[in-house]
Amino acid sequence: MKSRAVLLLSALAMVTISTAPAKAWWQFVTYNPDGDRKVYSFPTEKACLAAIKQVDAELAKKYPKLYPRIGSCEEYR
Q1: So what's the pLDDT on residue 21?
Q2: Could you say which of 11, 28, 47, 67 would form a disulfide bridge with 42 (CB–CB 3.0 to 4.6 Å)?
Q3: Beta pairing partners, 26
Q4: What is the spatial distance between Cα 75 and Cα 77, in angstroms, rounded to a whole number?
Q5: How far apart are CA 52 and CA 55, in angstroms?
Q6: 9 within 8 A of 33, measured Cβ to Cβ
């Protein structure tokens, strides 16, 4: 009887976890002249968009001939 209760609770926990919405985050990637990538992650799209403008402006000053310097904000789960 005990093993059935444990099995039932385990199955219930698995169903609960698998149906819970995944936590999302936003990120973008920058590139330098060597081709190295740097990933920036943010909890919201608004924060990502604000940061992408600032980082792109800084990279444009450092590497004016580099294109593309930066990717776009994308949502990940």
Answers
A1: 58
A2: 47
A3: 42, 75
A4: 7
A5: 5
A6: no
Domains of the chain by residue range: 22-76
List Cα–Cα distances, 32 to 6, 24, 59, in angstroms. 53, 27, 8
The pLDDT tens digits for 29-75 are 988 888 888 999 999 999 999 999 999 999 899 888 888 788 889 99
- For 10, 17, 22, 66, 69, the CA distances from 14, given in Å and listed in that order, are 6, 5, 14, 48, 43
Q: What is the DSSP letter of 65?
A: T
Is the peptide bond preceding residue 68 cis, with omega within 30 degrees of 0? yes
